[in-house]
């Protein structure tokens, strides 16, 4: 009996601390490949019972990898809930080949220079690694076929290739999606037009801000569109993903038939030398930025707008980068879904104290008061206890959300990792995820290609 009890305890521990990969129960062992973006460290902001504390880092020597290790060190040494990661680092010139041959882990995290990311992904899945990649997976149309091939290779090798879509975990976006799926409240999604899209998502970001309580340090290549990617293929990835995820939940999107790009344009944000010095801690512009410099100012192609049809629905995506937000402000998000009964609107401006807030606006002639109250009180309260409905004018309501749900952008990385660990344990992604990731990157790179011709 004692032997049986011990066996059961061991089996339970394996279920809690491992995941099923290639049909075997294994502990997750992370590899971090060429980290250069702070998102790479945010994946490790907390510990996970399924993941070994030993993390293998393969990268070229330099400030990028050192900044990453410094970030992990801050998590390990913080006063509250410190982590206990053990970073095992290799910085030889052959770092990629070393990672591929040593096979020290089974999940590769990729977040850094975007120019080589598609290559990294392809090599990793080809060698039998699972991959969790920060967005964007590609930044040019020319690499789209390589990404498609990488997904095919991942499927053949029975590994999971997945990107980090943090915005799916933002509470007002979740509630916007939930309400859009209740016909008695929302009706049905309008088709819209290029002049009045059915869905619009806009975001404003800033080069200078705080991350994990510290002033952000940007690498110089962050201002190089050839390395970071233009705005249409970078942050826009999140917005395109949300349109697919909210408007067509769990439905497969075929990029060959379901996406039609209508228009796209791009523009630059000027960055002066003092601004560049403030966020990079460098004294001067590096030579790699020379082609973007005129009259001592770097012009960064980080802003963009696209209008396209997805499954016949007209959608608009817009991204803007400023250097720094006004005092007390931060990155902002605006979103509207137009239904036949009401519009679901997320605003995040001064009136909302720069925190996202969801509004429900009835269209003319629609009576949704009783149905909306019932949806909140009976359906959504069960999933998200504490949310309430507050009148905000004639035919307009505000959905108030308890503070506990506003966990912040950094915490969403933990939520993405937990979901990815779930998929690893199940041995597969949902059937719609891979085709929709491909459709997403087809959309962003098609927009970038079109905007570059104008």
Overall description:
The chain is of the alpha/beta class. It folds into 2 domains: 2-164, Rossmann fold (3-Layer(aba) Sandwich), CATH 3.40.50; 168-412, Dihydrodipicolinate Reductase, domain 2 (2-Layer Sandwich), CATH 3.30.360. It contains 15 helices and 20 strands. It has helices at 2-17, 39-42, 63-77, 95-102, 117-126, 144-156, 171-180, 183-186, 225-228, 236-247, 255-258, 273-280, 369-383, 409-426, 433-452; strands spanning 18-21, 24-27, 30-33, 54-58, 86-90, 107-110, 130-133, 161-163, 199-208, 210-211, 214-215, 259-272, 293-294, 297-310, 313-324, 332-338, 342-347, 357-362, 388-391, 396-400. Strands 9, 12, 13, 14, 15, 16, 17, 18, 19 and 20 form a 10-stranded mixed β-sheet that branches. Strands 5-4-3-6-7-8 form a 6-stranded parallel β-sheet, sandwiched between helices. A two-stranded antiparallel ribbon has the order 1-2. The termini are far apart. The relative contact order is 0.14.
Short description:
35% of the residues lie in helices and 26% in strands. The chain has 454 residues and is an alpha/beta fold.
Total domain count: 2
What is the approximate shape? globular
* Span of the ends, CA to CA: 76 Å
Helix content: 25-40%
- pLDDT average, as an integer? 92
Using DSSP, what is the number of strands?
A: 20
């Amino acid at each position: 009996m004692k032997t049986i009890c011990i066996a059961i305890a061991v089996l339970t521990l394996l279920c809690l601390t491992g995941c099923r990969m290639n049909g075997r129960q294994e502990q997750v062992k992370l590899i971090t490949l060429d980290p250069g973006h702070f998102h790479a460290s945010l994946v490790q902001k907390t510990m996970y019972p399924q993941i070994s504390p030993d993390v293998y880092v393969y990268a070229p020597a330099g400030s990028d990898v050192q900044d990453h290790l410094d970030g992990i060190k801050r998590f390990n040494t913080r006063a509250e809930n410190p982590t206990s990661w053990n970073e095992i680092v290799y910085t030889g010139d052959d770092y990629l080949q070393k990672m591929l041959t040593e096979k020290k882990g089974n999940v590769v995290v990729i977040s850094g220079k975007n120019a080589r990311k598609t290559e990294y992904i392809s090599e990793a899945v080809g060698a039998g690694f699972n991959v969790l990649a920060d967005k964007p997976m590609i930044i040019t149309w020319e690499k789209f076929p390589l990404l498609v091939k990488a997904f095919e290779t991942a499927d053949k090798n029975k590994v999971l290739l997945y990107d980090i879509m943090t915005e799916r975990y933002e509470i007002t976006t979740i509630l916007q999606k939930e309400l859009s799926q209740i016909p008695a409240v929302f009706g049905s999604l309008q088709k819209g037009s290029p002049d009045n899209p059915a869905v619009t998502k806009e975001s404003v970001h800033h080069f200078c801000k705080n991350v994990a309580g510290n002033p952000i340090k940007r690498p110089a290549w962050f201002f190089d569109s050839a390395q970071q990617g233009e705005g249409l293929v970078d942050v826009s990835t999140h917005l395109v993903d949300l349109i697919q995820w909210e408007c067509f939940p769990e439905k497969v999107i075929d990029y060959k038939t379901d996406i039609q790009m209508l228009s796209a344009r791009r523009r630059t944000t000027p960055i002066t030398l003092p601004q560049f010095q403030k966020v990079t801690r460098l004294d001067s512009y590096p030579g790699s930025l020379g082609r973007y410099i005129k009259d001592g100012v770097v012009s960064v192609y980080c802003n963009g707008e696209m209008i396209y049809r997805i499954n016949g629905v007209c959608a608009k995506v817009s991204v803007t980068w400023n250097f720094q937000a006004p005092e007390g402000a931060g990155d902002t998000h605006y979103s509207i879904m137009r239904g036949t009964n009401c519009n679901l609107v997320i605003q995040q401006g001064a009136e909302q104290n720069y925190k996202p807030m969801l509004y429900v606006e009835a269209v003319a002639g629609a009576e949704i008061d009783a149905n909306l109250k019932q949806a909140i009180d009976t359906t959504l309260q069960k999933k998200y206890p504490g949310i309430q409905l507050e009148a905000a004018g004639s035919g307009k309501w505000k959905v108030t959300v308890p503070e506990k749900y506003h966990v912040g952008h950094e915490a969403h990385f933990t939520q993405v990792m937990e979901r990815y660990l779930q998929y690893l344990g199940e041995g597969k992604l949902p059937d719609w995820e891979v085709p929709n990731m491909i459709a997403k990157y087809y959309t962003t790179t098609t927009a970038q290609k079109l905007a570059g011709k104008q």
